[in-house]
Amino acid sequence: MNKKKRTLIIGAIVLVLLVGVLVFLLLTQDQATQGDESSSESTAEETFPLVEENVDDFTSLEMTNASDSYVMTSSGEGEDKTYEIAELKGYPEQDSNYSYAAETLSSLDAGNKVLDTVEDKAKYGLDEPSATAKVSYGDKTYTLYLGDATPEESDGYYFMMEGDNALYTVSSSVGTLMLQDKFYYLNRDMTQSYTNTDEEQPEVNKVTVTRKDMEEPIVLEKTELASDGTNSLYMSTMKMTSPVECDMDYELDSNYISTLFGLSAQKVLGFYNEADAAQYGFDDPEYTLEMEYEGGNTTIIVGDALPSEEEDTEGSEYHYAICDDNGLVYRFDVTKIGLTKVDLNDVISKMPLVPLITDVEQIDLTIDGTEYQFTLKHTAAESEDEEDQLEASCNGQVLDEENFRLFYQLLVGMSIEELNTEPVTTEPLSEVTLVYHYNNGESDDTLVAKEVEDRRLRVNVNGEDRFEGRAAYLDKLSQELQNLLNGETVDTSW
Predict the structure, then answer these.
(1) Which of 201, 242, 235, 213 lies closest to 413, judged by CA?
(2) Sheet holding 157-161: strands in order across?
(3) What is the reported pTM?
(4) HEC string of 51-79?
(5) In terms of domains, do 405 and 435 share one?
(6) Are 219 and 326 within one domain?
(7) Whole-angstrom Cα distance, residue 483 to residue 403?
(8) What confidence tens digit (pLDDT) does each residue in 231-246 have?
(9) pLDDT in tens, 427-467
(10) Range of the domain at 114
(11) 248 and 323, same domain (yes or no)
(12) Which of 315, 346, 377 is the last residue of a domain?
């Protein structure tokens, strides 16, 4: 064979071999790709159902975990199906928690299958399970074992079933349910909530809060408001009667009174026996709330503080609590009762005495020994389109009506800054006395304001030392009194 033919034959053989290799590579790549796609589809579609039962067939749950053991049974069918735990009968139960437990365990899927066979159960906390549940549907029973939480919190808990050697993971919600004690099935409401009902929230008649940090309790009582809505005497629907008597700021209702409805505990801790009062601190309570309202009353006693837990919400303060002698001990956030923590200076009205001008017939004003007697005569309007008329005079001098009304705003607008029940023991630098005489038969009100050191004003109402404010008010009052008497426009700002 000549050299040229031999070269052509060798080239052809090499070409065939190259084509063969190329075809092989293309085929194996396609098969690998198809295999990957098939594997991916299989993984995406793969599920791990553990229990697939109709919840209507649920008959019982026997739960054992580190904190408790209980048996939950059911009766009835369909919409009439009910659940119970015998030890909880007679206590306020939470029906939705019963049905949630039955539904969750009747349709139980694993999040992942970790192993086909578990050789070392201790590695996953399943040699001594955190919880064991026996769920029965007639004659069929599933036994479920809960292990440790997985390293990745989102994966939940390790899990096994009786008769199955595989290791699974279940969701955190399933794990949390299996770790609950029987008190999980009790209602945690301590006062009725009206936010999601058509029923109108009742009026509160009286609130008493006893605090260890205060010598006297906080007592708030409902005020009597004018039926026509014109009564501006009380900024809140409640008036404080202890530790001092005074009006309350308008924010009191929404921040401290309305919120007393819908109070709920974070957890029911157990049954309560009065013999155990000292154990929880109820023999010497941190706080006591007594609320009287239209149609009922509530008493919540707050004992010792509980140890903090990881899930505690920032700003919360958990204590033992009991409510209305219902036989339960709660884990309760006392900050939900705002009056347990509030500084009273932040909720009292900043005006110590605010009589309605229409109720006043005479005002006796004494400034550093000089007396001024104001006489007020009211004439009711003849129609709704007209305003009531007022004739005012001071020591016989007739005053401009509008200008006097401005002066009256200043008179009742004495600004206080804090409660102070300490009597004045030194000679005051300046002193003002106000006596209001009423035309409606009510007793007179007397206010005495004394300037003491550091330009402070101490205020006594009806013989009781109550408040403290700035003495600059006395200067302003004297100045505007002269403007009123001189026929000059009264300026109420100061």
Answers:
(1) 235
(2) 82-84, 69-75, 60-65, 131-137, 140-149, 157-161, 164-170, 112-115
(3) 0.78
(4) EECCHHHCCEEEEEECCCEEEEEEECCHH
(5) yes
(6) yes
(7) 9
(8) 444 468 899 999 988 8
(9) 999 999 999 999 999 999 999 999 999 999 999 999 999 99
(10) 50-185
(11) yes
(12) 346
